[in-house]
Amino acid sequence: MRLPLSTNSTIDSRGDGPPQRLIMALTKPGICFAALALAVSAPAGPLVAMRAPEGYAARVWHSEDGLPEETVQAFAQTPDRFLWIGTTGGLLRFDGVQFVGYGRENTPALRENSVFCLLAAHDGTLWIGEEGGGLASYSGGVFRAWSRQEGLTNGYVRAIFEDSRHDIWVGTDDGLFRLRQGAFTRVDDRNGVPPISVHAFDPGSGGRFWVGGYHFFSFADSGATEFFLPGGLADNVKSILETRDGSLWVGTVSGLVRRPPGQARFTRVDTIHTTVRSLRQDLDGVVWVGTIGEGLFRYRGGDVSRFTAPASLPGNTVLASFEDSERNVWIGTQTGLLRLSRTAVRTFPLADAAGADFGTVYEDRDGTLWVTGAHLFRFSGSKAEQVRLPPPLASVRVRNVFRDSSGVLWVGTDGQGVYRWGNGAPRQVANVHPYIRAFVEDRDGAIWIGTDGGYCRWRPQGIDYYELHQSVRAMLIDRAGDLWVGKDLGLTRLHAGQPVEDAIIHRLRGVKVWAIHQDTEGGLWFGTRGRGLYRWKQGTITVYTTARGLASNSIYQILEDGRGWFWMSGPNGISAVSRRDLNRMAQDPAAAPAVKLYGASEGLGATQMYGGVQPAGCITAAGEIWFPSSEGPVRVGPDPEAPAGPPPTVIDRVIADGRDMPTAGELVLPPGSGKLEIHYSAIRLRSPERVRFKYRLEGFDEDWTEVTTRRVASYTNVPPGGYRFRVVAFEMGQPHSTSEASLAIRWRPHFYRAPWFYALCLVSLAGAVWAAHKTQMRQAHARFAAVLEERGRLAREMHDTLIQGCTGISVLLEAALSLKNSAPETKSKLLENARDQMRATIDEARQAVWNLRSAAGRGSIAQRIAEIAQQVGQQSGVPIDCDAAGAPEAIDSEIGHHLLLVVREALNNAVRHGRPHRVSLRFDGENGGLRLRIQDDGCGFTPEAAQPGAPHYGIVGMRERIESLGGRFVLDSAPGRGTAIEIALPLVPRETRQASGEASQGAEKRG
Q1: What is d(CA 242, CA 259) in angstroms, rounded to the nearest whole number?
Q2: Is the model's pLDDT at 22 over the cut of 80?
Q3: Which residue has the higher pLDDT, 847 or 602?
Q4: Closest residue by Cα to residue 486 from 541, 523, 529, 447
Q5: Which of 925, 892, 794, 891 is nearest to 850 (CA)?
Q6: Do 628 and 360 contact (CB within 8 A), yes or no?
Q7: How many domains does the chain have?
Q8: What are the respective helix, strand and coil percentages of the chain, to the nearest 5?
Q9: Closest to 647 measured CA to CA, from 257, 241, 82, 254
Q10: In this structure, are 789 and 834 located in the same domain?
Q11: What does the buried/exposed string (b/e) look like for 189-208 if buried means 16 or more CB atoms within 10 Å of the residue's CB?
Q12: Is residue 47 part of a domain?
């Protein structure tokens, strides 16, 4: 077996900006991280250039990049395409960008942080073997611990395997166990199988599988067969691999042994003399061998390549290897995690070129590839040879070269101007700016030279200078023979040596134009520094930017291959897009281009591509695509097989008003202020930088929001209601092949924003309006009743004062007139009484108008009633017996006022209408009230004639007065037997009694 060490390598280059760092954040102890796994992305520290096997690009992660500890021991990939990584510091889930960590501090089912082995079973269950913590499983978002209750008696799980019957086999430091129907059964130490410590499984073939540890067995339906290795029992097994050609590889503590197909004997592989911890065969049939202390070996056919630290590995102790569904090879070491990704890009380092800040690539007419990077290099195949230039070029820094039609080689320098190198020694061209940026030859054979200080045209007759003090970045002679000059301050077009003004000239004024290209259809394309790509065709300008799907807005070079693809370099790598897609976008602004991006996954994540000095890239006659970079020239070859289908989209986390919420099923959120944060991702392990997203919150967003690297959607002031969050992921090169994840969200409102609350408010408002209306109507009725009451009161006052007084006066005057001239003294006295009665009537009328109280300040009620009785008796000549001994000493003025008017009306009615012989008036007191009885022996009348509506206003008025005071008015009369009026009155006004009653009721309720 030939075992040469391979010297082929590629460089995993690093970018000129801060590369990406992936940081895993763990929650505090006691919080179940299984339900809430927290992942944080942050800029990474500088990435070390890692030499990888040819055709691969390397990417390394350390603890500062997100690993909880440096030691990586196991890998598995579940059907959802998540990569699971077992470390000594915990279990990690990786989607290509973010690590999500699980450990005993946040996941109770994991009793130890050190994860030694992993298995993804056929049903999607992840099995986790811990060092000292036993076995755990993860399925449907739930972790479960397996222990002695299920029959697993040893907590140091070293290997896990699933057989063809889907039984789970678990190898521990003390025993081999099989899980069937939810219970473990110990398989060793019985049926001829000795007690064993198991460290490795392999599926094998032919209906058997391999088990290794301190013994080496094959298990089949027929039983177990033990095999003996050259080292004996002391040479215990650490890894096993049966390759597809039937070879059996066994890694032991002392090296690697192999049994070729069809043979019975194992032989040692002499290149490895240390512990072989991992064995893996990839889909190409290549065997990867990880050792303790001697690095990584790759067996491909009969050749062996070895990769060691620090050039090709994070560390020389390789503990695990794995190939994922995207054909990335993952290497777990004691000092970090390595990913080897298949790539079409290869970087060729140049000796002594690290200090250059420029670079160009130029293919000569004879096929020679010239590369500059301070020095001049000639490429032959994949080897770069530094060209030893003769004086005076021996000590200059070469920027670019150009071969004119006469065969002369023009050499542009960094500070020494231009040299022509034809037959003989190179000669410097005089009077040219010392810093050269571009060359181009026109149809007349003149050489145009672009510099940091303008551009000039060289002819044997002399040099013509143009636009001095302008920094030139690119030059092109178009098919019409015009010269286009891209500068840091815009664009110039010269026709026959004279400047021409076009719309594109005006549009690009002040813009940094770094690349110019004319396509096969005559369209002109201009790459700018920060403003995107411009197309000038048939008088129309079209602009392409990252907002329309480009990989970058800074374009250093534009190359077009034979298939019509544009290859462009920029600060974030190299991209390719079909010109047909770009032309379609000019007609349809909604069209999206398919863009191939070659960046971090191809080893260009931190490589600074060079531009601004031409040619900043070329396509060779053989179809190879080359660009200059800070790590040396980059060659882009055929693309490796791309992952099938779009990257699966997942929603990782939802935060509402600062609270973490579940991401499965319908999400019902409690009332809050409407702040929503949704974290999403797309699982792409090889090239996550190529993934683009667009999302929309249906019911809130009017349109989709398109994003590039950001993986969180934030919303504020989201009103309560029902929504659906949708996020779509796709690769730039396949914009129409998408995957989607969605989440139904129902945000419950505060009670004061709920529909029932609004309904209640409407009902309450309607009730309030109705109540206000009813109150207004009651008030109107009350006012109307008050008006009626006031009219009745005025009528009574008029009747009882003015009318009664006038009646008395009329009686006195009639009496005086009836005397004629006889008894002049009596007549005079009657007239004097009439005068007094007139005055009294006027006073009472005034008091009635001003609502005065007649009883105030004029003696007691008994005295006033006696005076009225005496006055009426004198006027009428009818004796009135007044017994007021039972009247109270003090009485309310309002009650007294009404009572006096009623007494006077009753006495006047009796003497005027009843024609009695005698009238009696009697007071009686009763339980805080008084009783008054007025009785005469007159002719009497029928009481029905005195009801409301009859013309007896005096009786009606008396009844109304007494009842308004809360009293009782009783009239008893009949023709021929006189009339009796009985009045019962309380001594407290009605208002006072009502207020007192309401207060009493309130007290009872409070009691």
Answers
A1: 9
A2: no
A3: 602
A4: 529
A5: 794
A6: yes
A7: 5
A8: 20, 40, 40
A9: 82
A10: yes
A11: eeeebeebbbbbbbebeeeb
A12: no
Cα 861 from Cα 985, distance rounded (Å): 13
Phi, psi for residue 205 in degrees, rounded to 5: -150, 170
When mean pLDDT is compared across 353-362, 821-830, 928-937, 956-965, the lowest value belongs to 821-830
For residue 911, what are the CA distances in angstroms to 265, 510, 725, 841, 919?
156, 123, 100, 19, 8
The predicted model gives 822-845 an average pLDDT of 73
Q: How much is the pLDDT for 40? A: 36
Position 849 confidence tier, pLDDT thresholds 50, 70, 90: low
- Rounded distance between C-alpha atoms, residue 708 and residue 685, angstroms: 17
**Amino acid, single-letter form, for residue 732:** M
Q: Are residues 196 and 149 in the same domain?
A: yes
The structure's pTM equals 0.72
The candidate with the shortest Cα–Cα distance to 514, out of 569, 562, 572, 583, is 569
Residue 144 lies in a domain: yes
Non-local CB neighbours of 123 within 8 Å, separated by 6+ positions: 139, 166
| CA-angle at 521, arms to 518 and 523, nearest 5° | 45
List 516's β-bridge partners, or say none: 526
Residues 456 and 556 in one domain: yes
User: How do strand 418-421 and strand 427-429 relate by DSSP bridges?
Assistant: antiparallel
Residues 323, 270 within the same domain: yes
What 3-state DSSP class applies to 32? coil
Closest residue by Cα to residue 981 from 968, 967, 969? 969
* Residue 317 clears pLDDT 90, i.e. is over it: yes
Range of the domain at 901: 860-1007
* Strands of 198-202's sheet in order across: 198-202, 209-213, 216-220, 223-227
The answer to whether residue 415 scores a pLDDT higher than 80 is yes
Asked whether residue 134 falls in the same domain as residue 283, the answer is yes
d(CA 319, CA 480): 64
305 & 398 share domain: no
- Rounded Cα–Cα distance for residues 792 and 789 (Å): 5
Does residue 971 carry a pLDDT above 70?
Answer: yes
Same-domain status, 701 and 837 = no
Using CA atoms, how far apart are residues 112 and 311, in angstroms rounded to an integer?
A: 33
For the chain, give the percent of residues with pLDDT over 90. Answer: 55
The CA dihedral of 516, 522, 523, 526, to the nearest 10 degrees, is 0
Q: What is the DSSP letter of 149?
A: G
- Supply the pLDDT for residue 909: 85
Kind plus residue range of the DSSP H or E element containing 894:
helix 893-913
Per-residue pLDDT band at 848 (split at 50, 70, 90): low
Section 938-957 average pLDDT? 70
Residue 61's DSSP bridge partners are 337
Instruction: Please indicate, yes or no, if residue 27 is contained in any of the structural domains.
Output: no
Q: How confident is the model at residue 187 (pLDDT cuts 50, 70, 90)?
A: very high
